[in-house]
Write a structure and sequence with these properties.
By secondary structure, this protein is an all-alpha fold. About 85% of the residues lie in helices and about 0% in strands.
Length: about 230
């Protein structure tokens, strides 16, 4: 198929992704959980299709990560403990796959090691503070499974660190999408912990969903451009 035609189709998919994200946010305002879940679980398949149509060079790790996040989103439509744990576990797997791919982008010989250490201290310190606060507010029902909180927080920080180190050591087209995408992921998950353990309302639910949708899109664009 003609590359120009594929690009047009990819932008149509991106437009549909935007509409579905807006629909997701609107259903939060309307407190319509079933309709919200409908929009939410279709976001990752749309991103996979966008990635397939928009970029020439594809990577199996990216598709596996998308699949993991999608199954996690499906499981999280049912808010029971088992599904939440399984959903978060699959999200962890998705992030691990992103981390593995980011590691391959970094050129260690080009790194400033002092700056690397400072970046690591900043991000790991931030998520350590987040974990402590969330643990204090978590109910006894969830405290036994707090290990998932540590894992997700660590992977979020690692994703951000590796994206920044990629900028420093191997600057290429698309790398800033990876940086902003990973940081939006960190913000989204921080908001998720806030909603889960401290205070849940529509405003914070909207912020969580919005930043999560942006993070997923930016990361896919970043990986797609970087692999060209």
């Amino acid at each position: 198929m003609n590359n120009g035609l594929l690009e047009i189709f990819s932008y149509i998919i991106l437009f549909i992704y935007t509409i579905f994200t807006i629909g997701n946010l609107y259903m939060i305002l309307q407190k319509k959980t079933t309709e919200r879940n409908f929009f939410n679980v279709l976001l990752m398949p749309l991103l996979a299709l966008f990635y397939l149509l928009r970029f020439k060079n594809h990577n199996i790790l990216i598709y596996l990560a998308i699949f993991s996040f999608w199954v996690g989103d499906v499981l999280l439509t049912k808010k029971n403990k088992r599904n939440v744990i399984l959903g978060l576990s699959l999200s962890c797997i998705g992030m691990i796959l992103y981390v593995i791919k980011l590691i391959t982008f970094i050129k260690i010989v080009n790194l400033n090691y002092l700056l690397t250490i400072l970046i690591m201290i900043l991000y790991f310190g931030l998520v350590f503070f987040e974990v402590i606060i969330s643990y204090e507010y978590a109910s006894e029902y969830f405290k036994k499974d707090i290990i998932f909180l540590y894992i997700i927080a660590f992977l979020n920080a690692l994703l951000c660190i590796l994206a920044i180190l990629t900028v420093i050591s191997n600057y290429k087209s698309g790398v800033w999408y990876l940086v902003f995408g990973s940081n939006f992921f960190l913000i989204s998950n921080s908001l998720f912990f806030f909603v889960s353990f401290i205070k849940s309302n529509r405003f914070f639910n909207i912020c969580t969903t919005f930043t999560y949708a942006i993070a997923k899109l930016l990361l896919i664009i970043g990986f797609g451009l970087f692999l060209i």
